[in-house]
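Work package 3, deliverable 3.1, input record:
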Amino acid sequence: MTETTIAFPARAFDPVGVRHAVEARLTVFLDAKERLAAAQGFPAEVVDVLRDLVLGGGKRVRPVLCVAGWYAAGGRGDQDPVVQVAASLEMFHAFALVHDDVMDRSATRRGRPSAHEAFASHHSGRPGAAKLGVDAAVLLGDLTLVWSDELLHTAGLHTDRFAAVTSVLDEMRTELMYGQYLDLLGTGCPSPDVDAALRIARFKSAKYTVERPLQLGAVLAGTQAGFCAALSAFGLPLGEAFQLQDDLLGAFADTPQTGKPIAEDLREGKHTALLALALRRAVGGERDLLMGLCQGIRPEPVQVAQIRAVLEATGARAEVEQLIDECHGRALRTLEDAGLPPAAVSVLRTVAATLIGPA
Amino acid sequence: MTETTIAFPARAFDPVGVRHAVEARLTVFLDAKERLAAAQGFPAEVVDVLRDLVLGGGKRVRPVLCVAGWYAAGGRGDQDPVVQVAASLEMFHAFALVHDDVMDRSATRRGRPSAHEAFASHHSGRPGAAKLGVDAAVLLGDLTLVWSDELLHTAGLHTDRFAAVTSVLDEMRTELMYGQYLDLLGTGCPSPDVDAALRIARFKSAKYTVERPLQLGAVLAGTQAGFCAALSAFGLPLGEAFQLQDDLLGAFADTPQTGKPIAEDLREGKHTALLALALRRAVGGERDLLMGLCQGIRPEPVQVAQIRAVLEATGARAEVEQLIDECHGRALRTLEDAGLPPAAVSVLRTVAATLIGPA
């Protein structure tokens, strides 16, 4: 079985090593952009704000999954292109966060001021600094997306490989944008429609965060359509579990744990499966409390505690926890059924444990 | 000279034909996206709003210049890739317009409601429709940028040609974003600093609208660095003239001519060379009137007429007209000095005439 061992060097997949390699690549890229700005006389705060966001935190989930997909598909040899594509994914994610925070008017991200707040502080002496901050963040997001492209364009991929990568990537990006749009339409009008909430989660998260990054890595390793289908069967339920877990964090976690404002989803009236399940079952005063979110009323801290109590009392929290277990279990079972090489299964089990915890 | 004639088929460069070919390509692309949205159950208004913007008007300046660069550099044979890259440029421009209108809160574009207004109308029954419109337009701009990439990725370019194209393109996009940021910083605080105004114009317009599109076409034809340098020498002063002309239109044109709101630049207090020159010379009440723009006060129609009178009386308008002539002349003189093939010179003269009018 020596050949299989070489083709699937599962032991070489090291999530911590991937994080470091991707962060090193992003640092080199941003350093070059800082020098470019200095040479051209462009304002330095643009790269400064982006650097704080990109290098100031983040779990690097998508880059790790991209490299995992590469290993799982039997990738070997020069890792440079896959690390660079993974770095491009992380830069793309930074773009998505900047614009997400603009749309949600989130004050913090990764425990620091969000990009529009950082620009507003930088220009605090000017009239209209808040609007300037938002506009600058729109531009910074655009620039970050363009720079994510630049990382991709300079990854040294040849025609066929590049075409396979961009085919997955273009689909991923379109799905995310529509997912964000559906999220926007659902915000402030949550309903008992659990399926609609899961559909948003599917596009915004299961596909964007799990399925597509795994597939990107796999096509970088030159895999075929069959393996990509297996990665979908594994990645979609796993991604759904990941998003449901994020919904719980969004409702129950305190800031230090996530770097986001407390109970942000609740305050924004996000249409999550958690809230939809609670709305199905709440009656009387409990229902009125939840419906306040539907009218776009941002709850005060004391109400947040009450809403959390309703999420518990209606059993919505327990049901989401059960859904997470089910999705997680379904993802793991596909690994047994798909007839994948043992080393690929091992990598993907590591992925599941990293995202959700032990089975 | 038969060989030269084949290598530089100047007579084949037909700006009207380019416009039609690019519009046909964009129509096919958007039709496919409409079918995709229907198949996936995505809301149809996303493609609808984009289609109205992309196909509802526009002079297609950048696509025309891209194809002109291709002809000027001796491009021949299959035009499909160059038309597709030109279409990608136009899609990129649509992205820039959507976000520009968000930042400026422009109500109209190309004589129709701007994207954020169109989304707000679509959702007019909802509370917070105006904010939803703006957020949706941020996402639409993002999606449009992603789709501009998809057009590029599917242009069928091979590794070396693709690397040459993206090298120009990545630079162009970064320059535009910084130019937009400089523009943002200058808006609402115009000063007598003509150089600063010309610098914004250089990045936002001369490079983005003229130099880079010409170079993109040239590298698609496989040209070398020397020819790209000649295109810079020609394109930058021509682009400056084009922007100065746009400044005059922005201050003096009525809506039907440009599709933009009347005197939009003045109302937004844009830091244009026109305004900077007027500020240098205005005294007393004239100066107070202009300085009102510096404090971000949007003038009423009657004041717009007064500001126009000041732009005339100070001689700023005449000086800008003279600058346009000088830049235009400088661009044309480079064609005589660069030792370019006569057919290339002929294409570039057509470009100058299309942008600025007869010399």
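The domain at 2-356 of chain A is CATH 1.10.600.10 (Farnesyl Diphosphate Synthase).
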